[in-house]
Design brief:
This protein has 236 residues and is mainly α. The protein has a domain of 103 residues. It is 47% helix and 10% strand. The protein has 9 helices and 5 strands. The strands form 2 sheets. Strands 3-4-5 form a 3-stranded antiparallel beta sheet. Strands 1-2 form a two-stranded antiparallel sheet. Strand 1 and strand 2 form a beta hairpin.
Length: 236
């Protein structure tokens, strides 16, 4: 049922629907409980030409890697997307937000499956998810080589790395050649010359690539919780 937002106040939305709502139907759905709803806010901005071009370039690379006709590769990706997201995707009807989700899905698939890219697409470098997934799947974010090293963009220094919360540091995923270049030319030149966006990694990625384990993360979370309780106790 389509509606429009006519008022917004904090976590409250007032929505006016195109048709009256049958109170008996609401009562039936509630089943003697609260009525709940799942609201999808619509992005009125259509997809951009850049998003569309990148999506089709990635699908073309997937098709080449899988040795599939382009139309079959596109349908395969749409099927995988529906399986993971629970919704159909249409290039023709996609909004900018929907297209963004689709492109990020394609980026992760390309990196997780080790699909080689013929070049670093300029539009690809605008996606932080590209740099995040390069770290997650250990692909060099410059040349795409596998088994990349995870580079701390801000040096941890001589501290015991087992006692460092790596969620607080930005990373870039680099092959050994580009990792050596990073140390030779410095962080600023590396980021500017190779167009790199350093990213912070979450629990899932840090555990997957073996930089932290769950016990370490829980220990840090407990320390932060204890510190916060202490600050509150002294009026901090």
């Amino acid at each position: 049922m389509l509606g429009k937002v006519i008022h917004h106040d904090g976590n409250r939305l007032m929505i006016e629907f195109e048709e009256p709502i049958n109170p008996e139907f609401l009562k039936l759905l509630a089943r003697d409980k609260e009525n709940l709803t799942d609201v999808k806010l619509i992005d009125n901005e259509p997809k951009s030409a850049k998003q569309n071009a990148l999506a089709h370039a990635l699908i073309k690379d997937i098709a080449k890697h899988q040795e599939l006709p382009l139309h079959k590769a596109k349908q395969m990706m749409k099927d995988l997307y529906k399986e993971g997201h629970g919704i159909e995707f249409s290039h023709a009807e996609a909004s900018m937000t929907e297209m963004n989700t689709w492109v990020e899905f394609l980026i992760e698939h390309v990196l997780s499956e080790g699909i080689s890219l013929p070049k670093r697409y300029s539009y690809l470098l605008e996606y932080e998810k590209f740099f995040y997934n390069c770290c997650k799947y250990r692909r060099c974010c410059i040349c795409g080589k596998p088994h990349a090293q995870i580079h701390h963009v801000k040096a941890v220094g001589k501290r015991n790395r087992n006692k460092v919360d790596h969620r607080l540091f930005p990373f870039a995923s680099l092959c050994w050649v580009h990792h050596n270049i990073a140390h030779a030319i410095g962080e600023i030149r590396l980021i500017n010359e190779f167009v790199i966006t350093p990213v912070y990694l979450d629990k899932e990625a840090l555990i997957k690539i073996g930089i932290m384990n769950n016990a370490q993360i829980l220990r840090f979370d407990k320390e932060y919780e204890t510190e916060e309780i202490f600050k509150k106790s002294i009026g901090g």
